[in-house]
Structure formats: C-alpha cells, structure tokens
Write the structure tokens for this entry.
Amino acid sequence: MTKTRNSGALQYKSFGLVLQALVILAKKGDTCSSCEIAELLSSEATLLRRTMANLTREHILVTREGRDGGYLLNRAPEELTLAEIYLALEVGESRNKAVKDTMCINAFGEQMKAACGDVLEEMDRSVIGVLEQYTLADMVRKAGC
C-alpha cells in the first residue's frame, strides 16, 4: 500500500480513535463489537476494525467470532502502556516518513534528511518516554469513566 503525504496525520487520528476504543473496552471489561464501539465514538465500524487489526496482531486485543463476538483486552489496563499502543499503530514510523517525504529528491533534500534524522529520533524518544509513563488504566481514570 502506497502512503500519501497525509498518512502521518491519519495515523495520529488512528491513535486517538484507538485510545478511545480501548478506554471503552477497559470500562466495559468484556467483549465489545466494532459496531458498538463505533456507535459510541460516532465513527465508522470499518475504519475502527482496520485500525484495531494492528492491536490484534500485536496481541494487545483478542477477537472473538460469533453472535457475542468482538474485541477484548488481552491484558489488564494497568499493564498496558500508551507507548505500546502507539508503537503497535506504527505512528512514529509514519511521522518520520511523512517528514522525510516532504524533502526534495536532490542533493539538498538528502542533506536535509541527514540533518533531520537525529532530531526526528530524539522526538521519537521523547514521545515514547512520555507515553511510557501512562497506562490505559490512567486514561480510564482521567476520562472519568
């Protein structure tokens, strides 16, 4: 799949959507369908399923088939950091790619990519460092759920 220049922004929106969905799952403590979550978030179930697939691949979520199927947290909310969620969605990779994709394809562009490399890596470490300090349970508490 070829990503466009807006793909980074979409990934950040996905992080926000997924974070809300995970708070719903943590609050419910049971299986919840994508349609049920999407309705609560005023979102599209298809978009939600596409985004949640990354979390299933990373074993943050489990899915159940059938009439009572849906998503279920695979770990306690107290054990799941926001950094793990963020990394499962590959948001940081998209940010780096999005910034580098804006740079021209010539000698100057290559110089800029090299110059920005360290800065982008430092940004990534800072973001991950902050997100490692918070768990899904913290978000449930902060949201008043």
About this structure: DSSP finds seven helices and two strands in the chain. Helices lie at 7-28, 34-41, 45-57, 82-88, 91-101, 107-131, 136-142. The longest strand covers residues 61-64.
